[in-house]
UniProtKB/TrEMBL annotation:
InterPro entries: Kinase-like_dom_sf (IPR011009), Prot_kinase_dom (IPR000719), Protein_kinase_ATP_BS (IPR017441), SRPK (IPR051334). Residues 62-408 form the Protein kinase domain. Keywords: ATP-binding, Kinase, Nucleotide-binding, Serine/threonine-protein kinase, Transferase. It comes from the Eukaryota. GO terms for molecular function: ATP binding; protein serine/threonine kinase activity. PANTHER family: PROTEIN KINASE DOMAIN-CONTAINING PROTEIN-RELATED. SMART domains: S_TKc. This is non-specific serine/threonine protein kinase. ATP binds at K91. It catalyses: L-threonyl-[protein] + ATP = O-phospho-L-threonyl-[protein] + ADP + H(+); L-seryl-[protein] + ATP = O-phospho-L-seryl-[protein] + ADP + H(+). One of its GO terms (biological process) is spliceosomal complex assembly.
Length: 408
């Protein structure tokens, strides 16, 4: 099924800039929702669909009651199925990302065809296309799940998740990754934002009680600073804060699930590296090789486990591949010799190339971090797990199942 063409709409002369938002808009009541949610410049022809609480979809079947979250390609809402009276997650893609969202539907259908992989994902209930002022949006109706692993990690601030829970969650990440690979699939985008908790403890509560568990609702009316009418059908009239899960304490009882599977591919596939986004968690082969395969999941799983321990990402990315590679070398060790020629090209493209060298016998930043910041002997086995998963060459990485065995 192909997404319908974008319906006619009148676009602005240009997309909003950060300066336009800062100088042109405010909220009532005054709030930071302009800045801590999806930016207004994603609301334009081809972008996100403007939504207010109470909006209905699919001929009145789904009614929006809260916002769950957002990402680069979609917003996700808690909705009431007015036929069954159950709460569902309604994911609404950007209009220019509907083809990717359609791939996610097909991926979920493929994963739910097997009992082995279906347990790793949210249940898929429905999908449809919604036409709005910004275009045709693929919508996916799924089982409601809990907070992301990223949200829970951040909720501990400077503290570490309980050791027993941390190890249990690390095992679940590795087991889920291994199960996907053994079933012939690669997720392609594993990170702490795309791993969420189940909500079994809330399965039998009322809809009202579930909504309360999301945390305090924050909304604000979008206004122009000059008090002129908003008068822009591309923009939402209301800004809604995403669920905070402020009182969530169930990470010791709930299990992990993978979400956002629009990048799913087969284990035997070779994916062009041009399709990979360069960011702080991108595997090095997407920089140095023409293609990548399912073993990007292993690198990313190592990232997730590192984040569980240190509540941070091992690398920073500011748009400079050379700087990222230097951080990888400090973290892992020497770059493979066959990648040095390509590294020279990244250095030439860098605005501020930095010399770095790594002695084969020197202590890596990862080892130093464990020595200085991880005194708990229970967490010591996670060092070889991360080292095994986050090796430069994909063929040198240990499998997720072998990494799991290191924790037995």
């Amino acid at each position: 099924m192909s997404a319908p063409s974008i319906p006619p709409a009148i676009s602005r002369k240009r997309r909003l800039t950060i300066a336009d938002i800062r100088d042109g808009f405010t909220t009532q009541p005054v709030s930071n929702l302009l800045w801590n949610q999806e930016f207004l410049n994603c609301y334009d022809l081809g972008g996100c669909h403007p939504i207010c609480l109470g909006d209905i979809f699919k001929d009145g079947r789904y009614k929006v009651v809260r916002k769950l979250g957002w990402g680069n390609s979609s917003t996700v809402w808690l909705a009431q199925d007015t036929i069954t009276d159950i709460l569902v997650a309604l994911k609404i893609s950007r209009a220019d990302m509907s083809s990717a969202s359609r791939r996610e539907v097909l991926a979920l259908e493929a994963l739910h065809a097997s009992k082995v992989t279906s347990k790793l994902m949210p249940a898929l209930y429905d999908d449809f296309v919604h036409n709005g002022p910004n275009g045709a949006h693929q919508c996916i109706v799924m089982q409601v799940l809990g907070p992301s692993l990223k949200t829970v990690i951040e909720s501990f601030y400077s503290e570490r998740i309980d050791l027993e829970d941390l190890l249990r969650l690390a095992r679940q990440v590795l087991d889920a990754t291994a199960t996907l690979h053994e079933a012939g699939f690669a997720h392609g985008d594993i990170d702490c934002s795309n791993i969420v908790f189940s909500v079994n403890n809330l399965a039998n509560v009322s809809n009202e009680a579930f909504i309360i568990a999301l945390g305090k609702l924050k909304t604000a009316e979008l206004l122009r600073i000059d008090a002129s009418p908003l008068d822009d059908k591309h923009l939402p009239e209301q800004l809604v804060g995403a669920a905070k899960w402020d009182d969530w304490i169930d990470e010791d009882e709930e299990d992990l699930r993978f979400v956002d599977v629009c990048d799913l591919f087969r284990v035997g596939d070779q994916v062009p590296s041009s399709e990979a986004e360069h960011n702080a968690i991108c595997p090095p082969e997407t920089i140095f090789e023409d293609t990548f395969d399912y073993r990007v999941d292993l690198w990313r799983a190592g990232h997730v486990i590192y984040s569980l321990i240190f509540a941070s990402c091992p690398f920073m990315y500011m748009g400079d591949d050379d700087s990222l590679v230097n951080q990888m070398i400090d973290f892992i060790g020497a770059l493979p010799p066959e990648w040095e020629s390509r590294r020279q090209r990244t250095r030439e493209a860098s605005s501020d190339p930095i010399e770095t060298s790594c002695d084969a016998n020197s202590t890596t930043e990862l080892e130093t971090r464990f020595k200085e910041d991880v005194p708990e002997p229970e967490l010591a086995p996670l060092l070889p797990v991360i080292q095994g998963l986050m090796r430069f060459r994909p063929q040198d990485r240990i499998s997720a199942r072998d990494a799991l065995a290191l924790l037995d």
